[in-house]
Amino acid sequence: MVEQQEASEDAVMTRIGQAIMLLHGGDREEARNRFGALWSELGADGDALHRCTLAHYMADTQDDPGDELAWDLRALTAAEGAGGGWSAEHRDLPAVRAFYPSLHLNLAADYLKLQRPDSARIHLQRARAAAESLADDGYGGGVRAAIDRLERRLREQ
Predict the structure, then answer these.
(1) Closest Cα partner for 20 from 44, 49, 45, 53?
(2) CB under 8 Å, gap of 24 or more: what pairs does 147-150 form?
(3) Are 11 and 46 contacting, i.e. CB atoms less than 8 angstroms apart?
(4) What is the pLDDT at residue 93?
(5) Which of 36, 56, 107, 141 has its CA at 20 to 30 Å from residue 101's CA atom?
(6) Phi-psi bin for 87: left (phi > 0), alpha (psi -120 to 50), beta?
(7) What are 42-74's pLDDT values in tens digits?
(8) Is-contact 89 112, C-beta < 8 A?
(9) pTM above 0.90, yes or no
(10) Is the dihedral of CA 100, 96, 31, 64 positive or negative?
(11) At what angle do helices 2-24 and 48-59 cross, to 10 degrees?
(12) 118: CB partners within 8 A, 6+ apart
């Protein structure tokens, strides 16, 4: 039973990954369609890591900054729900925690696009604080560099 559930969860992550590849390949519309179908399948009670990952990338497919913000907020809500309901030993907890800097960075960027610099600063501070726990690898360095870039843009406001 556990193996079947894990295989099913892996299939969902595979489908999310395929849609991410479409997004990164420039096919935003098809990625958005696939993310939307998966979101409907997962439902409100779906796996928190799946919902967080999907909403995080679905935000990047949006044309309207308000819609992008709504998806980024869904991603943060899923991450917060996961962290609050899981034990410290849960296998997906490190993955969800690794999302926090990027989630807050995206929210800061969304608020900046919507000309809400005070909200952008709040999430940028949260992104920087969460980034302290990231490894000094390509991902961690990339997130920290993106935080620095957004911080410079906010100072110019």
Answers:
(1) 53
(2) 147/101, 147/105, 150/105, 150/108, 150/109, 150/112, 150/120, 150/124
(3) no
(4) 61
(5) 36
(6) beta
(7) 988 888 889 999 999 999 999 999 999 999 999
(8) no
(9) no
(10) negative
(11) 10
(12) none
d(CA 90, CA 25): 33
Contact present, 107 and 150 (Cβ < 8 Å) = no
User: Of residues 91 and 6, which shows the higher confidence score?
Assistant: 91
CB 133 within 8 A of CB 91: no
Mean pLDDT of the chain: 88
Q: What helix, strand, coil percent values describe the chain, rounded to 5? A: 80, 0, 20
Cα Rg for the chain, rounded, in angstroms? 16
